[in-house]
Amino acid sequence: MILTPKEISFLDVYCYEGTQPPFGGPATDVMASIGVHDGDTLNLQWAYLRDKPPTGPVIGRASQVSPPLPWANREAVLLRDAEIQAVREATNQVEKRGRESF
Fold first, then answer.
1. Could you give the maximum distance between any two Cα atoms of the chain, in Å?
2. pTM
């Protein structure tokens, strides 16, 4: 697992809101309130899909309220996204080497 349980809980709703009309909701609003937008969280979203692959056509879950934000502020979100970017790049290198060996 790359993400913490609190991150997964929040991203369940955030990723749902980003993939289902009307494309927004309480988790998206919380992120926007601290200056974070979808493009800032691409690595977090990648980790969410890796840790919790969808079992059907819908990603995540709907909610009328946002789960607690697992990061203190915008800088913490960006730092965590950067940490996951390093994991993602390392994972991609390992997977690439694996494909090349066939």
1. 48
2. 0.91
* Closest listed residue to residue 12, CA positions, set 46, 48, 55, 64: 48
What sections of 1-102 are H helices per DSSP? 5-19, 26-33, 42-51, 74-100
Q: What is d(CA 88, CA 42) in angstroms, rounded to the nearest whole number? A: 11
The owner of tokens 């809980």 is 9
Higher pLDDT pick, 43 / 92: 43
- Section 13-18 average pLDDT: 98
Residue type for 100, please?
A: E
Q: Mean pLDDT over residues 78-89, rounded?
A: 97
Amino acid at the residue 69: L
Residue 92 tokens, joined? 């991609």
Residue type, 56: G
Q: How far apart are CA 91 and CA 88, in angstroms?
A: 5
